[in-house]
Design a protein that fits this description.
The protein contains 11 helices and 12 strands. By secondary structure, it is an alpha/beta fold. Helix 5 crosses helix 7. Strands 1, 2, 3, 4, 5, 6, 7, 10, 11 and 12 form a 10-stranded mixed beta sheet that branches. The protein has a two-stranded antiparallel ribbon with strand order 8-9. It has a domain at 56-270: Rossmann fold. The radius of gyration is 21 Å and the shape is globular.
Length: 352
């Protein structure tokens, strides 16, 4: 009987053969990295700028205050990745064909998230669907869209109206069991793999003890281990501290994760999202070191890349985000210097 310790050991022949197989997979899948699917922000080999694609084993944090689009940004990214895998499957890519995007939610019901998915694909208001006020022909469009999604590899984990009797508490162990339920092997050959996991969001894991800082630090470390154990990518939503709301420029930075400092150490990348309309009224000016933007509706969002392992960081993009349709488009706006903003913030905090 083979022990766990023996399975950790690779002879020179075994490690070379495993690496050759890995190279084949990388070449077939063009590196297997997962971009943001925002062309203006994705990495360009031409000028070595942009967000470096996410590799397996990495954890990326999406940081934001409540109401600033954290869930919408993550769901949009998950949907884009699932659509990409579906298109690659149709093109004959075997890796894409056995891959699953998992969105684990503790914030909304599975049925609600699926309706957001429909809203994005069909441009039907999620608000109208949630209130049951669509005309009959649009309801038929919704039902057709749901059936068409049978082959889109976007899986959900979480609370559901259909299974509400289960009353499952989502914790670290249950999260690992959910990944184990998806991942399937035939011998050492992968049959179904978890391409990426979106977890919405960290602070919805409830601590059973008094020391929340220790709990969320340990949990972040455990999620980092899962990313490696399942050779997947984890995109982790994290709520920023309420102190962010009191700043002149209320953009979260790396040390703003609520109840945990482990986020900075364990994350291979950190992105914050901010919706200026959450803080400014219509017609007011958003002035953040060069961004003299007039608030016009609720669609404006700032996506700020604060950290990216081995890649460019400290840059941002203004986007137009429509939460009712889960749609995001880039806006051309003059850049500001996020490092300068953060330096000013730290100086003010230390002075106080």
């Amino acid at each position: 009987m083979t022990t766990k310790g023996e399975r950790l050991v690779f002879t020179p022949i075994e490690s070379s053969n495993a690496t050759e197989d890995h190279i084949k997979a990388l070449r077939a899948n063009q590196g297997d990295g997962m971009p943001l699917y925002i062309p203006e922000m994705d990495y360009s080999t031409k000028d070595s700028k942009g967000f470096l694609p996410v590799k397996r084993g990495e954890i990326i944090t999406i940081l934001g205050r409540p109401g600033n689009g954290k869930t919408g940004f993550m769901l949009r990214w998950a949907r884009a990745r699932a659509n990409y895998l579906k298109s690659q499957t149709l093109a004959g890519n075997e890796t894409a064909a056995n891959s699953v995007v998992l969105y684990l939610t503790m914030e909304q019901l599975v049925e609600e998230l699926r309706l957001f998915h429909v809203a994005a694909e069909e441009r039907i208001s999620a608000t109208h669907m949630a209130n049951g006020i669509l005309p009959d022909d649009q309801w038929e469009t919704v039902n057709k869209a749901l059936r068409n999604m049978y082959t889109t590899p976007l899986w959900f984990a979480g609370k559901s109206m259909a299974r509400r009797k289960d009353k499952i508490r989502i914790d670290e162990q249950v999260t690992r069991e959910a990944l184990e339920a998806i991942e399937q092997f035939q011998g050492d050959n992968i049959k179904t793999q978890v391409d990426c996991v979106f977890i919405d969001y960290l602070q919805r894991y409830r601590s059973t003890g008094a020391d929340w800082v220790q709990f969320y630090g340990d949990l972040t470390n455990a999620l980092k281990d899962m990313a490696s154990d399942f050779a997947t990518r984890i995109i982790l939503g994290v709520q920023a501290k309420r102190e962010v709301d009191q700043r002149d420029v209320p953009i979260p930075y790396m040390d703003d994760g609520q109840w945990t400092s482990a986020i900075e150490q364990q994350s291979d990348g950190m992105i914050s999202v901010t919706r200026p309309s959450h803080y400014k009224k219509q017609g007011e000016t958003w002035d953040a070191k060069g961004d003299n933007i007039i608030i016009d509706g609720h669609k404006q969002m700032i996506v700020n890349v604060m950290k990216r392992k081995l890649g460019p960081e400290n840059f941002k993009q203004w986007v137009s985000f429509e939460p009712e349709y889960n749609k995001l488009d880039a806006l051309e706006v003059k850049n500001f210097n996020p490092n300068k903003d953060h330096d000013d913030y730290k100086k003010a905090r230390n002075h106080v």
